[in-house]
Amino acid sequence: MKNRYWTISFIILTIACSDKSNQAQLAKGLDYPDQESWGVTIILTDSSIERARVQSGHLEKYNQAQHIMLDQIVKVDFFDKKQNHVAILNSAKAEVDQKTNNMKAIGDVVAVSDSGITLYTDTLFWNAKKEQMNTKDSVMITTTEKDTLYGVGFESDSDLQNWKILKPSGVTDRVKK
Prior knowledge:
Layout: H1 2-27, E1 35-46, E2 49-62, E3 67-70, E4 74-79, E5 85-91, E6 93-97, E7 103-113, E8 118-127, E9 132-142, E10 148-157, E11 163-169
Antiparallel strand pairs: 1-2, 2-3, 2-4, 3-6, 4-5, 5-7, 6-7, 7-8, 8-9, 9-10, 10-11
């Protein structure tokens, strides 16, 4: 009988504690999304001109923070000022600041320009106003000339035409002409 009393007391205590814990978490204001969508496409524009088309399997929108979280395979198509396609970016996740349209791609980021430059990194920031990409992470770039370049830190325009590795590393067999 004593064991049964302790078992019942333990169960009641466990339920009471977990209920208080959930209430405490809600009282702290855990950030839940205001909206969720699946299979989404977001169009990012500048003066009514499409600059990027973002697709993802899942979206969470936070109105107060004006923040969007995309967390199921993200694909971004970039366009120039004449709305010509210039590059594509793929990542595991991304965050979009709705005030600025700036985006942060996170996890297994691969950006490929239509001219053939390919960038591999862990995170990549896109500044919508300046139309520039950058990261402080390690990068690997492959070029149409079959070069593979490595380094830490990267800056580029959205079409990956004018890019630089901030701290390059590696060896080349190229001879200066």
